Amino acid sequence: MKSLLKWLRPREAAMARLVGQFARAESPSLDKAAVDRFGRLVAAEWRRRGAQVALLRQRQRGDHVRAEWNPSGRRAQGQILVLGHLDTVYGLGTLARMPFRISRGRAFGPGVFDMKGGLVIALFAIDALAEAKLTPGKRIVFLWTSDEEIGSETSRAVIEREAQRSSAVLVLEPAAGPLGLVKTGRKGVGEIELIATGRAAHAGLNPEDGVNAIQEIALQIARISQWNQPRRGITVNAGVIEGGTRTNVIPEHARVVVDLRAERAEDMRALGRKFRELRPILRGAKLQIRGGFNRPPMERRASARLYDCARALAKEMGVTLGEAYVGGGSDGNFTAAVGVPTLDGLGAVGEGAHSPQENIRIGALPERAALVAGLLATL
Ligand SMILES: [Zn+2]
């Protein structure tokens, strides 16, 4: 580990230069020609390192880049998948307002953090391994996709296929926080709609004939809000509410849309069941329940072993590596959901993703590359 880092440290400036070259090749998800141009630049870097590179061509979005690095040739036993994306959220021309620049040990520019820094980390990890003559026992497939920032529609199938052939997946998405935490858990996410139907009546003349749908929904919200268990990672949030027509009418219709999140698959299932078992509270009201969980959680146990391994390697370098749970999703959700151990957030350390201040800490690049190299050599 120490020797990998020792070789990488003096290459900090070269790493930052390559991040700059990558950031200047703008690659907004929706601009196929631009993403393809950047993809060819990345492909050239991999070919220079002796990787077998294939462009997974397609019409709709940019071509995905698959680079296979297999220094042990036929003796390779199994596969490790390294995952990242070529696209950024920044439209073409953003570079003019937000030029690549280096200031006080940080590199600024569109996509440096999410996640061109991660692409550079992977390249230098391979350089360090080659220099140290450390030959991974497994075939290593680097998959750089073109549409992560817009939902991975064209890449999901290839991501899942490559993951199923692999014993581990390393995701080079940005690290969490200034300490560079890796991501060992992502919540499952769902959306449920409750629709109440009551009976309309005049609020003054015959209120006793009415059934108030808004009141029904309000009572249901009070009930489901008690299912929040923030410490266990379960959140239930009524985010949108609609109902009623006029103040002097007892409302017949009302609905609420609820955001659900859970850290554990069992909690997710239990919560879904509780929603489906909801019955009307007011006499004469009807209740309909639609939706459910749509993204499974990445549970910590799916990445625990990989995290332990990464932490031990970091310790050898004298670095304490922490972990984080995050609420949002990444392509790591897909690979964890097909049952393959996945460690996310191994990319650059920085801040301001998707904002004009997006930047990375240059001094952390060699450490991150050494960590990835160490994982590839030992897994
Ligand atoms: Zn990303």
- Measured between the Cα atoms of the first and last residue, the distance is 14 Å
The counted number of beta strands is 18
Query: What kind of oligomer do you see?
Result: single chain
Q: What share of the residues lie within helices?
A: 25-40%
Tell me about the largest β-sheet: 6 strands, mixed
Helix-strand topology string: HHHEEEHEEHEHEEEEHEEEHEHEHEEEH
Shape: elongated
Which structural class matches the secondary elements? alpha+beta
Number of helix segments? 11
Strand line-up across the major sheet:
1-2-6-3-7-16
Low-confidence stretches: none
Ligand species:
zinc ion
Radius of gyration: 25 Å
The fraction of residues in strands falls at: 15-25%
The average pLDDT value, as a whole number, equals 95
Descriptive notes:
The protein has 379 residues and is an alpha+beta fold. Helices cover 35% and strands 25% of the residues. It contains 11 helices and 18 strands. The protein has helices at 2-8, 12-24, 32-48, 94-97, 112-131, 156-164, 213-225, 265-276, 300-316, 331-337, 365-378; strands at 52-56, 64-69, 79-85, 101-103, 106-108, 139-145, 168-171, 182-186, 188-197, 201-202, 235-243, 249-250, 253-262, 286-295, 323-326, 342-343, 350-351, 359-361. The strands form 5 sheets. The chain has a 6-stranded mixed beta sheet, with helices on both faces. A 4-stranded antiparallel beta sheet has the order 4-5-18-17, with helices on one face. Strand 1 (52-56) and strand 2 form a beta hairpin. Helix 1 crosses helix 5, helix 5 packs across helix 11 (365-378) and helix 9 (300-316) crosses helix 11. The longest helix has 20 residues, at 112-131. The radius of gyration is 25 Å and the shape is elongated. The mean pLDDT is 95. Bound molecules: zinc ion.
